[in-house]
Design goal:
By secondary structure, the chain is of the alpha/beta class. The chain has two domains: 120 residues, Rossmann fold (3-Layer(aba) Sandwich), CATH 3.40.50; 62 residues, no CATH class. Helix content is 34%, strand content 25%. It contains nine helices and ten strands. Strands 6-7-8-3-9-10 form a six-stranded mixed sheet, sandwiched between helices. A hairpin with a 2-residue loop joins strand 1 and strand 2. The model has no long low-confidence stretch (mean pLDDT 89).
């Protein structure tokens, strides 16, 4: 069966630094996949390759079997991939509902876009913010508005880079519930480092270390793996084909 999104021997080098080194990963239709790893493990660079922010040095990225390696972010989005980066990218002078309408105007007329926008805001629990100007919102609210903009065009896959960054414990808990609900209609790939959040949402977890996949398994097995404990505690683990550290 063809994967929804896959990579083949994907590499991203910066001079002599192998930020992503021969990564093979496959995400199925309807899956919720978490990518974790300590700072500098390569997960954010890998995310930027998937989303068209970086052009990989080598390897392939495929969408339903189609080679999309090096495609621009806007072209990737048009395939049915929603992208939310760590820092919200919003239209500061618009209201919340105007922002969500704008995110889907290419697919729907204005009246239909407004109806769909309000439905998405209801779904995310922020309909009460519809008339607020984005620039006046708190950080956690801004994160949810950008997520609404990503969800509104109904993508098949949503890519989220540290969606809980800067959120309070209460906001993070709500985000976990929301992501599980979104997974009923969308496949998701979530890059995170918050282990409590991962435990709340994950089924399959891929752990990055030194630019490669260290382990990929169920959340319970990953969190019990001594190698994962070691990399998060900063202990040295030599990856196959490297010279350690």
């Amino acid at each position: 069966m063809t994967a929804l999104l896959s990579t083949e021997e994907l590499c991203m080098y910066f001079g002599g630094v192998r930020a992503v080194d021969r990564v093979n990963l496959a995400v199925a239709e309807g899956e919720l996949r978490c990518l974790i790893g300590p700072n500098g493990a390569g997960k954010s660079t890998f995310f930027r390759c998937l989303t068209g922010q970086y052009r990989p040095t080598a390897g392939r990225i495929r969408w339903r079997g189609r080679d999309i390696t090096g495609a621009d972010s806007f072209a990737i989005a048009r395939l049915g991939i929603g992208i939310k980066t760590q820092v919200p990218s919003l239209f500061e002078g618009l209201t919340v509902v105007e922002s969500v309408i704008l995110a889907q105007r290419r697919r729907h007329g204005e009246a239909d876009a407004r109806r769909r926008a309000m439905a998405v805001l209801e779904r995310l629990g922020i309909a009460g913010l519809a008339a607020r100007v984005v620039a006046q919102l708190a950080h956690g609210q801004r994160q949810l508005v950008e997520l609404a903009m990503v969800v509104a065009p109904a993508p098949d896959l949503i890519l989220l880079d540290e969606p809980t960054a800067g959120m309070s414990v209460e906001e993070t808990g709500r985000a976990a519930t929301l992501i599980r609900e979104l997974n009923r209609a969308h496949a998701l790939v979530v890059v995170e480092h918050d282990m409590q959040f991962i435990k709340a949402i994950a089924s399959t977890v891929t752990v990055f270390h030194q630019g490669r996949v260290l382990v990929e398994d169920s959340v319970a097995r990953v969190l019990a793996d001594p190698r994962v404990h070691d990399v998060y505690l900063g202990r040295s683990i030599a990856m196959p084909g490297t010279e350690g550290g």
